[in-house]
Design goal:
- This protein is an alpha/beta fold.
- It has two domains: 199 residues, 2-enoyl-CoA Hydratase, Chain A, domain 1, CATH 3.90.226; 47 residues, Lyase 2-enoyl-coa Hydratase, Chain  A, domain 2, CATH 1.10.12.10.
- It is 48% helix and 15% strand.
- The strands form two sheets. Strands 1-2-3-4-6-9 form a six-stranded mixed sheet, sandwiched between helices. The protein has a three-stranded mixed sheet with strand order 5-7-8.
- The longest helix has 20 residues.
- 36% of the residues are buried.
Length: 264
């Protein structure tokens, strides 16, 4: 449990869960929330017996984005809030980058709404499971604030036209549409969100931890490279991976038709 109780941490076997706990504020990302999430991701990423991390929220929403009341209050400062706005956006970018760079797979478990920086949080996670009825939007354009930082994660998840439509219209989309455009992976029926998410997490956690770590890092590095460079890089990664004990064990187990005994 976090110090200020705005973020809870729980463990079930090799699965770790970070739960946003500002239900009255729709789990909006205050500076304190950004800091605690960032610290949690970094710490769990280096915790050997944690293999998969799940992000979820309490109350009626997964995450409604930045805390607009906190941002508005900062306008009373002598610089009209500019330094606070810069700090907030910097901390948010650090969090999203930490999720991508985390050596463990991170899964968003989404209910209610995920809007603005909340949608950015979903897009930054490696996988996302949403409850049927969940809705997504980047509605900054409706209040004179283009969702520029959410755009970074969004444009790396969905097609350009789909991203631009969300960013330019600010309209909400339902879970079915979010899945169609690639923002989420699976839809859970009402009442089964946690079960579906944990089943997916457990399936991934059953794989060799070293293989997951190598694969996740390689995925995000190669996706920004030109094709020829990406193949060259991926070939090197495959060679390194083949030299690991888990790869030798996994191939042997497959050929011998037995369960693999991964190093932990």
């Amino acid at each position: 449990m976090s110090g200020e109780h705005i973020l809870f941490e729980t463990r079930v076997g090799s699965l770790a869960r970070l739960t946003l706990n500002r239900p009255a504020a729709r789990n909006s990302l205050s500076v304190a929330m950004l800091e605690q999430l960032h610290d949690g991701i970094l710490r769990l990423g280096e915790t050997p017996d944690v293999h998969v991390i799940i992000l979820s929220g309490t109350g009626p929403a997964f995450c409604a984005g930045h805390d607009l009341r906190e941002l508005t209050a900062a306008r009373l400062q002598p610089d009209k809030g500019q330094s606070f706005f810069q700090e907030t956006m910097s901390k948010c970018s650090q969090l999203m980058t930490a999720i991508v760079h985390c050596p463990k797979p991170v899964i968003a478990q989404v209910h209610g709404i995920a809007t603005a920086a909340g949608a950015q949080l979903v897009a930054s996670c490696d996988l996302a499971v949403a409850e049927r009825g969940a809705r997504f939007a980047t509605p900054g354009v409706n209040i004179g604030l283009f969702c520029s930082t959410p755009m970074v994660a969004l444009s790396r998840n969905v097609s350009r036209k789909a991203a631009m439509e969300l960013l330019l219209t600010g309209e909400m989309i339902e879970a079915d549409e979010a899945r169609r455009i690639g923002l989420i992976n699976r839809i859970a029926e009402t009442g089964s969100l946690e079960e579906v998410t944990e089943d997916l997490a457990a399936q991934i956690a059953s794989k060799a931890p070293a293989t997951l770590r190598i694969g996740k890092e390689a995925f995000y590095r190669q996706i920004e490279m030109p094709l020829t460079e990406a193949y060259s890089f991926a070939s090197q990664v495959m060679t390194v991976n083949m030299m690991l004990p888990d790869a030798e064990e996994g191939i042997s187990a497959f050929l011998e038709k037995r369960e693999a005994n991964w190093q932990r």
